[in-house]
Structure formats: structure tokens, C-alpha cells
Amino acid sequence: MPHEDTRAARAAVAGLVLLLIVVAYYLLHAGQGTSPFFDEWDWITRRRGMSADSLLGPHNGHLSVVPVLMYKALLQVAGLDDYWVFRTVLLSLHLGCVLLVFLLARGRVGTVGGAFAAGFVAVLGSAGDDLLWAFQIGFLVGVLFGLGALLALERESVRGDIAAAVLLALSLGSASVGAAFAIAAAVELALHPRRKERWWVLAAPLVLYGTWYLGYGEGQMKRENLGVTPSYAADSGAAAAGGIVGLSLEWGRLLLVGLTAIVGARIWRADRLTPRLVALAAAPAALWVLTGLSRAQNNEPEAPRYIYCGAILLVLLVCELLRGRVVPRLQAAAVLGLVLVFAAVGNANTIDGISGFLRFQAKDMRARLGALELVGRDRVPLDLQFSPVNSPQLTAGRTLYAEESFGRIGLTPAQLLKVPQAQGLAADDVMKLTGSIAFAPAAEPPTPRGAPPIDDAVTGGTVRDRGACLVTRAQSPDTRLDVRLPDGADLLITAQGPTGVLARRFASAFGTEPIAEIPAGGTVRLDTRSDVSTAPWHLQFASAGNLKVCRAGP
Hints:
Number of helices: 19
Number of domains: 3
Protein name: Glycosyltransferase RgtA/B/C/D-like domain-containing protein
Keywords: Membrane, Transmembrane, Transmembrane helix
Transmembrane segments: 12-28, 84-104, 109-127, 133-153, 165-187, 199-216, 274-294, 306-326, 332-358
Low-confidence stretches: none
Shape: elongated
Mean pLDDT: 93
């Protein structure tokens, strides 16, 4: 470790601890109101039991046995309704990665430099997905084990090598980011003078990974990505470089070019060239190339979830380039502190955007699950895709069973009555998908009976009661009639002109997609199913002609 002032080192450690406390509070607060999202539901609903398939089956090409086991344990301990426990585990993994970066960097640039290196990782909000979405436990635990393996390799002892081999195996068993650390270890061991004695450190985890791949692996690399991978990899690297200091992709390109030039010159001159330096140059480049070969078709090199690992490797690379040097004066520390504050503020915008998105998705899912539970398991098609846009892989049967097993997170009937418009539309969407409101042609118009539906409003015409019916007389080509009827009631609608029908129950305003189109001269029957909610159905008929809307049920 470079020689440095003891008081400065203590101040740096104290400052890092204070920063981590602030970051922990901020991230926990930013993640409030979130719940399982998208791929996360696959681990909750599809990986039941402890079979080999549930543990070893790939997820988007990743071997995810470690995070799958973690999720199984968390679901048993916390369930779905205590999602904060999942987020706390994710935060703990992030703080663990920060600590390992500090330990790795301190041996190169001293305690003060190591604290700044760890600080930039702590405020890495550009990788906000990995800091707020609990599903990214897989990525972060892979990075944590990978960093631990690099630290263990530095001991150059049998115990250290055994630890490195185990940690590399665990990193590869967590997510494909483990490949970056395996490549770093391979390069470092290949350049080490005792490489013939230490070859097994990498061979052991690779044999385990290869065995899994032969049984379960799925090739993710796509031939069509070959041509675009270089530009994709460059943009991924630029996003990581810029994200470290809270800057955009354009600034990241400049930073990456400068860093590449420095590393290239160092390698060309073989000046203070260490095995770790070459390893840390190769690992992020390989990570971005491999990601491009398998993911370039998605055209998202700036995706926050891909920034975390690359940014950490770049931070360690800079520390390796500065090996043996310490922050010389208070002025230099002040400048680094200002840059760190700038990075934290810039990256906070990304955190805020991602947390807002995840909260919106959580509200949408809770409303949809509340509507499913309201309809009742016995009346819901178990293979129904009840969230076809945001979570198309989910089926009603699997999700309701998960709630029965791990805790209910859907809104109660009372809560559904108070939701804002977006959640109301989501709940209404599920009610329509489950057939709680449905239209069918009326072959023989039944006899209207009961009190007429409640007339809420009419525009472009007039309306009057006629027995069990409301009859409108159109005075414009766009006559609109709003009616209200209790859940469980039925209607008969006869339209003289083409008529579109909008329906809502929990939303405060109508959406834009008609639930039915009635042809001119047509008669249809509307059926609703009763449930425990007191919310009535609201219907709006937009017609080019006269309408007759009759009560045909209770």
C-alpha cells in the first residue's frame, strides 16, 4: 500500500462511511412503493420447488442458480408483501461491492484514493436498475463474487487461490457478468510467473460451468449481431465511462477514448505493466463485446442494468494505472470531492426516473391483481395473460397461486374504489379480459324488465325513459349517452346507427378503446357478473343515430 498521511486516511474512511449511510437511505427511500416486476415474476411463478430444472434452468441465457436460491429463501422469509426485504438485500450487495472496490483500490492508490474510487461506485445511479430493481440481485451478487475472486487472487496463497476458484464459480453461477471476471482471472493467471501451478484456479469453475452448459445452456450469440457489435461495445463502454461521473454518452465517448489511449500507450511501452492491468483492460472490453453479440438486436447499449459491472471494472482499471500514487494534497482531494458530488447529482436524475417507472409498474400490477382476486380464481381463465403489455409472460393461474403461497399484494375491493385513473384503467382492463363485462348479439330481442339504467349524461341529443328503457333521439352525428348500472345487471342495446361502447368501473374517466362496436340496426346484449365490490359499471354510447338502452336483468 502506498505511504500516506494517517489523519487523511482516517478522514477518508469516515467520509466514505458517511456517504454510504446517505446512499443507503436514499436508495431505500427511492425504492418505496415498488414490487416484483417483469422477469422477476418468472422466478416467483415458474421456478417452484427444488428440482434440478427449477435451479439450473437458464434465464435469458444466464446460469442463475445463486440468485434463484436467494429468491426461494427470501420468498419463504419475507413473502411478496414485504418486498422491502428484497430491496434491502440488493442494497447490501451494492454496499458489499463498494467495500470490495475500496479494498482493491486502496492497495493501489492508498486509502484516500480508494475511498474516492469506492465513492464513485457508491453513487453509480447511472446503473439505477441494479440499485432499485430487486431482480438485479443476480447481477450484483455476480459482481460481488467476481470482485472477491480478484481480491483473493492477490494473496497468491493456496487458501487465496481456493477462495478465488470458489468465488469465480459462484460468480458464473449468478449471472453472465461472471464471464468478465473469469476473463480477468484467466488473463492475470496466464501472465503470472507461477501460472503452471495456478491453472486449476480457473479450470475448476470453468469445468463446472461447462458441465451446466452442456446440460442446460442456450446459445445467446446471434450471427446478425456481428456487424453491429463493435459499435455496440463502444457505446456500452462509453455509457459506463460517462456514468461513473454522471455524464452523457457523448462525454463518455471522450473519456473512454482517453482511457483507451493511456492503456494502449502503457501496453505498447510495457511501462509498469502488471498482469492485473492487462486483465482489467481485457475484462470490460470482453464484457461489452459478449453483450453486443447476444443483445445488440435490442439496441440498448446505454441500458442502466449493463452499466454497473463495466463501470466498476473501469474504476479499478484507473486505480491500476495510478498504482503507487496517492492523492497528493488537500486541493486535489477537494477537486475529486467536487467531481464526486457532480456525479452523485447527475446520477440522481437517473435514479429518480427509474424509481418512478418501477412505482408506476407496481401500482399497475397491484390494481390488476386486485381485479383478478375480485373476479375470483374459479371464474378466471388460468392461462389468461392479464398484463399483456407490461408482463406478457404472466398467467393468471400462476400469479394467483404465487399470491396464495407468498402473500397478497393485489388491492382490496375498498382500495380499488379509491385508485387514480391509471390504476383504475388497469383494473378495468382485467375486468374486461376476464369476461366480467361482455357483449353478445341478441338473436331474439328479449323482453326488457326492471328499472331503466341510470342516465348520467347525454350530449348531442335528448333522452327519456320508456319503461325499462332509455331512448335517445339523435340531434347530431355524434350523440353520446352515459349510463350507470349496478354490477350484475344486464342491458339490451338497439342502435339505429353505428355505435361504439366505452366501459369503466374503477377508472374515474373513460379510456379511448371501445369495448364493443354495434352495427347500424343491431341489437346486442351486455352481461355483467356480480362480485363483492359495490362499484357500478359506467357505460358511454357514442352513436350516429337513435339508441334504445334497456335493463334486461337484476
